[in-house]
Design brief:
This protein is of the alpha/beta class. 26% of the residues lie in helices and 19% in strands. The chain has a domain at 3-158 and 372-518: FAD/NAD(P)-binding domain, CATH 3.50.50.
Length: 567
């Protein structure tokens, strides 16, 4: 390259260029980015598009009877915003929504959020090196662009009706747990609940006493476990678990930070230790299996033959482990009819099972979950026409769950191979956010035009994941969304290790796994500018490096930070 063609740009070294960053979704991940990006990055134009009329994501949407988080409340908060006033050991949806709404208000995140704005298309433009977006809002659609696109929409955001004939023939009230109408009365009604996943379990346990008859349609057996970490829960005087924190306990949390921190850390450590349960063939796995079989049988044997149908043959943890307080007890009540197998069709009056039996209902509640594939919910086109479409959803691959091959300047929260079933998800989300912020800073300060994960990095990571997974119970013979809804197949959803391990791995980005282009095509070193630092240009603090000095450590030179007073 002839030197004459290159020129030195008039700026200080590592000067942050202006970037527009768009975040899709204002749930836990999106709110976090709305807090941290303004705190630690400069010269950023940030917008968060949220399709709903409020923030908090899945907790804004899910309002079905009994809806609650099956993670202890004090593990389901931002690490920097503990909440001593959680009313219960496990919190309901309204309490969680209130917490995250409050955080968004406290940190002034709402100024960046555009409610009722749904991203409907995203396409990478190579010439301008930005994303072209289409946005729908109540007053009409419009186009937008951004330099960096962050998908924080999560996997629990596109609910689905069951794929059963006659869905629209039913003349009673048809509800879905993810779009629930709380105004519909259930008292004294004949009600069906379709599904025995997390939402179905909570609905059945909650409404059983209120309804005249409850049909529970169960396609597959499932392990029902006691609530997690109950050894750390508050206690009744007789020693049994109390699911509500007393005012005295909450007062101590508020006034004794060390006691409160110890409680939270014990819960977190307990969650991390549970990972050993998910390894095949261990003594712990067998012990848990025997214990759960005994506990479930003790309840289900009240109805002959029920335990045999309900207790799985596959390993504990092959499907998502589900705490189910009150669910098994409900199944043996006189007004409850567990119905196993597939549904043949809906009729005007009710449901016909595959054996031809028809049961009439006033209300049908579909606890049939979400489209949990990793395909985009809208046309999403990357470099060279790559698409995150149905074909991608059938065999999703990622780099450390954070980036997708062929999608420059794009990051994703909890993509394929993320720790969504491996331990605490909120600390993992925070660490993912910090990873993305480090990458945005690098793009800003090193004159990077595009940053795109190498295809070989994706393939080598996927090779490790696929080779690792046979040791885990997730590969056992069960139908699970961990395997994209298949009985057998790749484990596409989960991280190959514990959530703690995930946090350690992604804390420092491996920048060498990315390909780069630069705003100055003649040199990657244009960011050096005039050879002055920001401090030299903007302040008189130009001797801060004296706070470090060379010292000897075990005979080797090393830099050690020292207070200025010790120099």
């Amino acid at each position: 390259m002839p030197v004459a063609e290159y020129h030195v740009e008039d700026k200080y070294t590592y000067q942050a260029r202006h970037l527009r960053v768009v975040v899709i979704g204002a749930g836990i991940s999106g709110i976090y980015m709305g807090i941290r990006i303004p705190q630690v990055l400069e010269n950023i134009d940030l917008v968060i598009y949220e399709k709903n009329s409020g923030v908090s994501g899945t907790w804004f949407e899910n309002k079905y009877p009994g809806c609650a988080c099956d993670v202890p409340s004090h593990r389901y908060t931002y690490t920097f915003e503990p909440n001593p006033d959680w009313p219960s050991y496990y919190s309901d949806t309204d309490s969680i929504e209130k917490y995250y709404e409050g955080i968004a208000e406290k940190y002034q995140v709402l100024q960046y959020v555009r409610l009722n704005h749904a991203v409907t298309a995203a396409k990478w433009d190579e010439e301008s090196a930005n994303w072209k977006l289409s946005i729908d809002r109540p007053e009409g659609s419009f186009d937008d662009t951004c330099d960096v696109l962050i998908n924080a929409s999560g996997v629990l955001n596109k609910w689905k009706w069951p794929d059963i004939p006659g869905l629209n023939d039913f003349k009673g009230k048809l509800l879905h747990t993810a779009h629930y109408d709380r105004s519909v009365p259930l008292e004294g009604k004949r009600v069906a609940v379709i599904g025995s996943g997390s939402s179905g379990i909570q609905v059945v346990a909650t409404i059983q006493k209120r309804v005249a008859h409850l049909g529970v349609y169960i396609r597959s057996p499932t392990w029902i476990v006691p609530p997690f970490n109950m050894d750390k829960a508050p206690r009744h005087p007789d020693g049994t678990p109390d699911y509500r924190y007393s005012e005295a306990e909450r007062k101590r949390f508020r006034e004794d930070p060390q006691y409160f921190a110890k409680h939270r850390m014990e819960l977190e450590a307990g969650s991390t230790r549970l990972f050993q349960l998910l390894v095949k063939g261990t003594a712990y796995q067998e012990l848990i299996r025997e214990t759960l079989t005994r506990n479930m049988s003790a309840i289900l044997d009240a109805r002959p033959g029920l335990a045999e149908k309900m207790i799985p043959k596959f390993a504990v943890g092959c499907r998502r482990i589900t705490p189910g307080t009150g669910f098994l007890e409900a199944l043996v009540k006189d007004n409850v009819e567990p119905i196993f197998g597939n549904i043949d069709r809906f009729t005007e009056k009710g449901i016909v099972s595959e054996d031809g039996t028809e049961v009439d209902y006033d209300v049908i509640i579909c606890a049939t979950g979400f489209d949990v594939s990793f395909g985009a919910r809208f046309p999403f086109v990357g470099r060279d026409g790559r698409q995150m479409d149905h074909a991608y959803a059938e065999d999703p691959k990622s780099y450390l769950s954070l980036a997708i091959g062929g999608f420059p300047n794009h990051f994703i929260f909890n993509g394929p191979s993320s720790p969504i079933g491996n331990g605490s998800v909120v600390p993992a989300i925070e660490t993912e956010g910090e990873y993305m912020i480090q990458c945005i800073r690098k793009i800003q300060t090193e004159d990077i035009k595009t940053m795109c994960i190498k295809d070989e990095a994706v393939e080598e990571f996927v090779c490790h994941v696929d080779t690792y997974m046979p040791r885990m119970v997730w590969t056992d013979n069960c139908r699970s969304w961990y395997k994209n809804g298949k009985v057998n197949g790749r484990v596409t959803a989960l991280w190959p290790g514990s959530a703690y391990n995930f946090i350690k791995v992604i804390t420092t980005p491996r920048y060498e796994d990315y390909n780069y282009t630069y705003t100055n095509p003649l040199s990657r070193f244009s960011f050096l500018g005039t050879g002055k630092s920001k401090e030299e240009v903007e302040s008189d603090d130009i001797s801060g490096y004296l706070e470090t000095r060379m010292v000897l450590t075990d005979g080797h030179p090393a830099l050690k930070l020292l207070a200025a007073a010790t120099l």
